[in-house]
Amino acid sequence: MPDPLAPFPPVRGVISTEEHDLRWASTDFGRAVHHRPLAVLRPDSVDDIAAVQRYATTHQLPLVPRAEGHSTSGQAQASGGIVVDMTGLDTVHRIGSDHLVVDAGARWSEVLAATIPHGLTPPVLTDYLELSVGGTLSVGGIGGTSHRHGAQTDNVLALDVLAPDGTRHTCSPTTNPLLFDAVRAGRGRQGVILTATLRLIRAHTHATVHRLRYDNLTDFLADQRTLMNEQRFDYLEGQAQPTETGPWALLIEAATFHSSPDQPDRALHGLRHHDADINTVPYLNFLDRLAESVALLRRIGPWQDPHPWLNLLLPDSDTENIVTTALATTTPELVGDSGLALLYPLPRARFTTPKLRLPQSTTSFLFSLLRAAPPASPATLARMVDHNHRLTTVATAAGGVAYLGDLDT
Ligand SMILES: Cc1cc2nc3c(=O)[nH]c(=O)nc-3n(C[C@H](O)[C@H](O)[C@H](O)COP(=O)(O)OP(=O)(O)OC[C@H]3O[C@@H](n4cnc5c(N)ncnc54)[C@H](O)[C@@H]3O)c2cc1C
């Protein structure tokens, strides 16, 4: 039996059992799941984490690393255990011509701040840059360049990991490969990632962004397949936005990265969109495109509301049916203010991380329902969660997979 009364080991940082710290550690961006830990460790160094990791193992307590807490269903929480706040360990150690060594608590915006002056960038970035390196490497990390480069976990050269027995190991495809494969997309339960060596590629200075609008899902999906297979663009995503008049507005967002002031001529020939706008912006502005709206949502409140998000990876053959059902049954109440859906294709051949499960099909589609529930309506939140469960059941019966989902999926 765990012995919660055994004194904590001495550390140079802080082990807190203060109410405000326990509350902080028992919530996340989803605000739908709450597990209360016994304590929160704010480490001063890796030695602190190692000492507390050994203590946790001896006393059979779960130890869970947490960084930016942007999980939506308790993935970084530790019921009755110890949550390690990784955000203080965020140093960028070294930049080479094709790689970077960084602490896992650093955010991707900090990684870019270090690499862009060298004309370099990670090949894959999440839509929002204020997520931590350790946090996204623990789930996969998928973005608009994944149709070319796979997940962020497919672009890691090596990791320094603290194993559950408190020992430190370097792992890579050739050194400790089993540990490397267990930790990438391991959701923080196979060891704590301390530092990551990340692959870098040339960063361009501009992005020319094409926004293509569609009347129907069949044409939208057909064009996404074409754009993915022909690799016409560097970046490829898509959205469905709720409208006041009824049907969801469908939009493909595709971008070319380049370093010439002239807009590259990317033909949209053969595509079925009914309307397009094209716009060239600095590369970093494009990557950080969510910053402004997130700042607004923080300021006016909805950023702090519950977010029962659904993220599914669907086999190509069933995507149109499942998404049609999902959008038809997602009433305005079930998407919430500022909610929307993401939908874009991923080729299986680009994804090699063993723990990042994808459907068996050659092409999958990421389908995310990014919902926001009013804080004063637990009934609406419960209906959104129930809708997620129903759609997940339909998707898994068709060979789909939950991405970022509950820990047992
Ligand atoms: C606004 C927003 C936008 C997003 N956009 C995308 C996107 O474009 N693509 C995408 O793929 N995902 C996206 N996500 C999901 C996001 O990638 C995951 O929720 C990610 O895990 C969050 O990182 P975090 O730093 O907040 O981690 P936390 O929520 O703190 O932790 C998440 C998981 O990582 C583990 N973990 C954290 N640090 C470490 C470590 N050092 N070692 C081992 N395990 C660790 C935790 O134990 C937990 O299981 C988005 C989420 C939000 C809220």
Question: Would you give an account of this structure?
Answer:
- The chain folds into three domains: 74 residues, 2-Layer Sandwich (Uridine Diphospho-n-acetylenolpyruvylglucosamine Reductase, domain 2); 113 residues, Uridine Diphospho-n-acetylenolpyruvylglucosamine Reductase, domain 3 (2-Layer Sandwich), CATH 3.30.465.10; 197 residues, FAD-linked oxidases, C-terminal domain (Vanillyl-alcohol Oxidase, Chain A, domain 3), CATH 3.40.462.
- It has 409 residues and is of the alpha+beta class.
- The chain has twelve helices and 19 strands.
- The strands form four sheets. The protein has an eight-stranded antiparallel beta sheet with strand order 15-12-14-13-17-18-16-19. Strands 5-6-10-8-9 form a five-stranded antiparallel beta sheet. A four-stranded mixed beta sheet has the order 1-2-4-3, sandwiched between helices.
- The structure holds flavin-adenine dinucleotide.
- Flavin-adenine dinucleotide binds next to strand 3, helix 4 and strand 10.
- It comes from Saccharothrix espanaensis (strain ATCC 51144 / DSM 44229 / JCM 9112 / NBRC 15066 / NRRL 15764).
- Its cofactor is FAD.
